[in-house]
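User: Fold this; tokens only.

Assistant: Input:
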Amino acid sequence: MSNQPGGPTAAQPDRPQPVDPAGDRPSTDSAASNGQPAAAPGALVLALLAAGWLAAMLWSTREAINSTTAGVTAVSLSAFALPGVISAALVAGAAVGLAAGELVTRRRTGVTLRFGAAVAAGLLVGLAAALAIDLTYAGNTTTRTIAGTTAAAAIIGGALAGARSGAVVGAVASSTLGTLLFVVAFSVARDPLFNLFGAGDSQQSLVTAAAWVSRTESLLAGLIAGALAFGYLSWARRRAGGAGPRWPGYLVAGAGPGLLLLLAEVIIRVGGRSLLDLAAALSDADAVAQTSLGTSRVDNGIWVLFVGALTALIAFGRTLGPAPDNESSVVTADEPASADKTDSADKTRSADKTGGTDKTDSADEAGSADKTGSADETESVVR
């Protein structure tokens, strides 16, 4: 068959293909539709910061244990310092595991491979921390308890970093690290706040003031955790070209610091049970102090969990635009069709009128011609 214009085998003109204005970078729609979660930006820097924070906590704990403060034993100081070390080890394992997982998935994709790399990185962090404790701390039962619990916390953190959504894990790790830094910095404001909340000479006033100081610290920590989580996920979304987690991801990221604090408390009470029991057995005052501190840590974790989740979710909601009006879009879509139908009807009526007019003119001309011819013939006959 010949390639005639309009025929079935006629060459069709080439249609321009849509080109991404960013060049070789995949468009937002393709990145969102391929099912790949957003990557965690700055994972290596976050891992270095978390590892540095763990090293600082180990150093401060060693200095506190080796101090010669009168009336304070090494067991009591170790029990007081244990929560800070465990929280730092948990965050360091998660951050280093996240960096390892992101590095591996750049070369080969796979959830199992990512999880294995994250767990291996957490194991290395835990072994390094335990080795540092054994080499620098005094060799006794307390030291072995701290070393074993720290290693377990780092491994658990690495396992958590093996989750598929790297951006959410990075948000949780960064916001938890920021929360821990805030808690340490908040110690400077505790004494002025005690006076502000009416701490006096009576025991009741001290207890009431301590409760209000703890609530203030937890509230501010939750706000900071939620804001940091939202900021990190917004950064990850911009780096991914607009593709990022939806509101459940922001909810988990905001609640993540509180969940890690509660998980750290579980690790402390399971792995460091022997150390806490030794510290509580020193005196009745130590037993009350350990119980009060444990309860305060749980309350702080719950506050940070809920306040952080609400803060991140509200911040994400404020970035959403208004929903499109379906009725107006339907009306707008129907209006061109109605206009086309009206134009077509008008054109048809005009064509009909024009055709009718032409036919009338033709009939008149034919009648006039017939009448003229008849008149001519009659005149010829008469003549």
